Description:
- The chain has helices spanning 39-53, 76-80, 85-104, 120-127, 151-158, 163-172, 178-184, 196-208, 212-226, 230-245, 248-258, and strands spanning 15-19, 23-28, 60-65, 69-71, 109-113, 116-118, 130-134, 138-140, 176-177, 189-191.
- With 268 residues, it is α/β, with parallel strands linked by helices.
- The protein has two domains: 15-208, 2-enoyl-CoA Hydratase, Chain A, domain 1 (Alpha-Beta Complex), CATH 3.90.226.10; 212-258, Lyase 2-enoyl-coa Hydratase, Chain  A, domain 2.
- Helix 1 links the parallel strand 2 (23-28) and strand 3 (60-65).
- The longest helix has 20 residues, at 85-104.
- The protein is globular, with a radius of gyration of 20 Å.
- One of its GO terms (biological process) is fatty acid metabolic process.
Amino acid sequence: MTSETPKESTDTPLVTRQDHDGYVTLILSNPARRNALSSAMMSALHDAFDEIASSPDIRCVILAADGPVFCAGHDLKEMGCISDCEQHARLFAQCSQLMMRIVTLPQPVIARVRGMATAAGCQLVASCDLAVAAATAKFATPGVNIGLFCSTPMVALSRNIARKHAMRMLLTGDPVPAQMAFSMGLVSDVVDDADLEPATDALAAGIAARSGMTVRLGKQAFYKQLEMPLSDAYDYASGVMTTNMQKHDAREGIGAFVEKRHPEWRHE
């Protein structure tokens, strides 16, 4: 083995972006490599999220992929060409930072899944706030089959589904069909393949039509309270609601409800 990693084509961007009214779609655009999370792909995706984070006009994000595979996880060719322990550590740390960026992003992120999402690709889906899957989509954490347990995907997976479901996926590597993934809580919606894009767009547009301030505040609070003891979570959430009540959009929304009219959001 050498410390050199295979080069990816720079002719086209690894992540492409489509802008809509109030939301954007980020597309993993390396189908020839099954949209694998190479270091370059993760950097491109992280940079795209950083740009979106500072854009108040963007209130929701769809994460999609070109080709028949959503994401095959880490680029095994790249990993196999690395022999240095520190390089492997940096690669896995980069992946963890990407997943955390999705969680800390102010805007909700919706995975739009067609085809297979395996290993770190399954982790990517689990890290998103919502996930809409085509009926033929499948999910797997098959690292055990190649002697590399899906330990980092396990973190996101075990925070989305029940322990025994997570352990079964991790210990067997068997693919889980979309409807089962829905029953387990890994995805929020399953739709016919032909309806995948319009259904995901409708969900994103609906979220984008809400107060951006309220959604940002709510997403941050959701993840913070999850790790707290019950009493602390209620204290924290009460403080969040108190802060929320002082905002323009809360006053506007309550007034609009009482007056039976549509609210006019300022997203502040």
